[in-house]
Amino acid sequence: MSVKPPVIVMVRPQMGENIGAVARAMMNFGLSDLRLVAPRDGWPNPKAHEMAAHADYLIEQAQVYPTLAEALADCQFVLASSAPRERTLPIPDAHPEAAMADICARGRRGEATALLLGPESTGLTSEDIAYAQAIVAIPTDPANASLNVAQALVVLAYLWFREGQMCPSPAPEAPRRATQAEREGLWGHLVEALDKRNYFFPEIKREGMLRSLRILLGRAEWSTQEVQTLRGIIRCLSEAPENPAD
Predict the structure, then answer these.
(1) pLDDT at residue 104 in the model
(2) Rounded to whole angstroms, how far apart are CA atoms 77 and 127?
(3) Is the peptide bond before 241 cis (omega within 30 degrees of 0)?
(4) Edge-to-edge strand order for the sheet containing 7-11?
(5) Mean pLDDT of residues grouped by 10 in the chain (246 residues)?
(6) What is the pTM of this model?
C-alpha cells in the first residue's frame, strides 16, 4: 500500500522566490499538493518560477485559498511547523523524526494530512496554530533559531520520504477520521449554540475563549460518526426548553 503524501500549506507567503523553493523541495521528496493561503503579492507570481527549477508544474497547479480553514477543509490531521519558542497553547510538540513518522503512518492508513508553513517574517500566529493537532520544531542554535521556510520543508520532507521507505504496514482499518471541514462544522455549531446562551461573556474575553475552544475540539481525533453524534447532542440541548416541566 502506498503512502498518501501530506499537503503543504503556505500561510500568507510573502516572497515568490520562497514559494518556488518550497515547490522544488516538494518535488525532490515526492510531494505534489501545494496550497497557498492569501499570498501577499497575489498569484500567479513569476518570481516563484525563478526558484522552482524543474518544479514549475507544481507552481502552475498550486491552489490559492482566502482562509486557512478553507485550505484545510479536506484534511484530517494538521501538523504546524514553527521555530522553537515558548508557547502557551495546549497543543503537543513533536520531534521532527517522530512527527514525520506519524504523518507517514497516517498516510499509510489513507488519512489526509497537512503540514503548515508560516509567513517568512513572523511565522505562524497562535490563531494559525490553533488549527493544528501537533507542532513540530526543528532543533537549531538558539542564537539563530529561525529557518528559511524552504529549508524547514527540506528537513521535514526528507524525514517523511525516508520514513516512507520503511513505514510499517497499516493497522487494521479504523473508523474514518473527521476532516477539518467536519470539525469546523462541529465548532461552528457549538459556538452558535453557546452564543444563544451568552456563554462568551464578557466580550473582551471572547477571542481567547474561541481560540481555546478550537484547540480543545481539535485535540481529539474525532471520527466522522463521533462528530455527527456530538452535533446531534448539541442540537438536542439547543432545542430543549431551559426549564422543562417535571
Answers:
(1) 94
(2) 17
(3) no
(4) 63-65, 34-37, 7-11, 113-117, 77-81, 134-136, 93-94
(5) 88 96 96 97 93 92 97 97 80 94 93 96 92 94 88 96 72 76 92 91 90 87 90 86 57
(6) 0.82
